[in-house]
Each structure stands twice: as structure tokens, then as C-alpha cells.
Amino acid sequence: MRVPSKAVNLYLVGFMGVGKTAVGRALAQQLDLEFLDSDREIEIQQHRQIKEIFETCGEATFRNMEREFIANGHPPTGCVVACGGGLIIPPGMLDFVRTKGVVVCLFADPETIIKRTATNDKRPLLNGGNPEERVRKLYAERMPIYNKVRTAISTDNQSIREIVRRLEAIYHRESRDFQLRTS
Description:
183 residues; alpha/beta; 5 strands
């Protein structure tokens, strides 16, 4: 179903490897909205990979870049944005993202995430040491924040098509609510 170009933005949040990019891309196509991946957009803006930003500038600087991306780095309407796994973790960021549009958290069991991220060396927070242990530790640390997102969908054992179908219904309902709250 096509939505108007002034459509409320949808922000997909959640831990790394839950499928935000794959699902977001498919949903944006379904809704005829622009798809953006916050990590990729920051890489384009900074002319370097996230891994390099972490190594040379540190995580705090990267989190500031994420905040700037949410504040000013993308169109205010008409987008599905796949957010980096840590984007809503800093204090106040979840509330800030909520002022920009609909926020939905995708989640999966740690075992699923470990399988999905095992061969990806572009995830700086998993570099060095035991990646499985790191996933479990970060997951436990971040879940209290992810649990504050009003709407969540599990991506375990579901096809992208099934998740997109559920997200589309959620988006239409919550974008109406967002417009009522902000008008």
C-alpha cells in the first residue's frame, strides 16, 4: 500500500543482527518510502567505515554522530530508518527518536543474533575477545532500554515477508497516533 510522501518516519531499533536493515528495506519498498540505514548514512557522511570511526574517534564520538543524524541527517518525513543497535542506548535518545516518528523495536534471541553476526567483521563492538560472550553481555545491558519501546516484534523464525506484513499494520496505526500527538 502506497503512503503519502509526507508520511511519518518509521525508526526500526534493536540489537545488532535482528534484521533491521533487511526488514526496513523490504518495508520501505512495500510502502514506497525512502530507506535509510543510519550506520551506512554516517559512513557516507564521514567517508569512512563505522569500524574506523570507533577505532580513531571512539564510541562516544560515534554516538554523537548518530544523534546528529537523527536530528538533521535525513528527511523529516517519508523514510524507514534502520537504526544502529546502540543508537537509542544513550540517555534521552529513545525519547528524542520518538519525537521524530514511529519507533518499533525488532528483537531476537541471543542465539539467533550470534548465528546472524558470526561472520560479520564490520561490527566494532564484537571485535576482539569472544564475540558470543560479547553479544550476551551487550544484549543483557541493552535489553532494559529496548524494552522501553512501546511496540516490539520478534524476528526469530519468521520470514521477512511475515515481519513486513505485521510492521505495515503497526506503522499505519502508530503513524496516525503520532500525527494526532504532534499536531
